[in-house]
User: What shape does this take?
Amino acid sequence: MQKLKLEPLTKENFKPFGDVIEKANSDYFHINDKTGQRFHGLGSVDVSDDIDPIISIIRADGVKGRKCVDLLEKHPKGSQAFYPLNGEKFIVVVASGDDDIDESTLRAFITDGEQGVNYHRDVWHYLLFAKDMPTDFLTIDRAGEDNCIVQKLSKEYAVDF
Assistant: This one.
């Protein structure tokens, strides 16, 4: 039997086989009104059509006790998936509606730390935030800047946890 030598995993030595997904030495930009940082485009998903899905890590701020929700957003050209990297709980706020949000359908969910979400295209949802502490999320969504519609709610809603 031939033994394989273990090599350090680096972007360069793994390049012929795929992408190394890591935050180290990666650029980021602020999102969600500067309450989160997005380590953008850490990998990409290979698809057969002209849509560019990507893999990113988003660091969302932690919130303790109460979050006030005054807007929702949706993405008409692609789904969005979020999964916490270290088992943290996070809050998900969603609503139904086509062009406008149906506020009577607003719902808030808390994950158990071992769950992620994949928002379908065109689903109204609140910005990503974590319960209690800053949290890194593995994110798979569509690249491009033309895929986000934001709408203000008629009033502010509080989510206590």
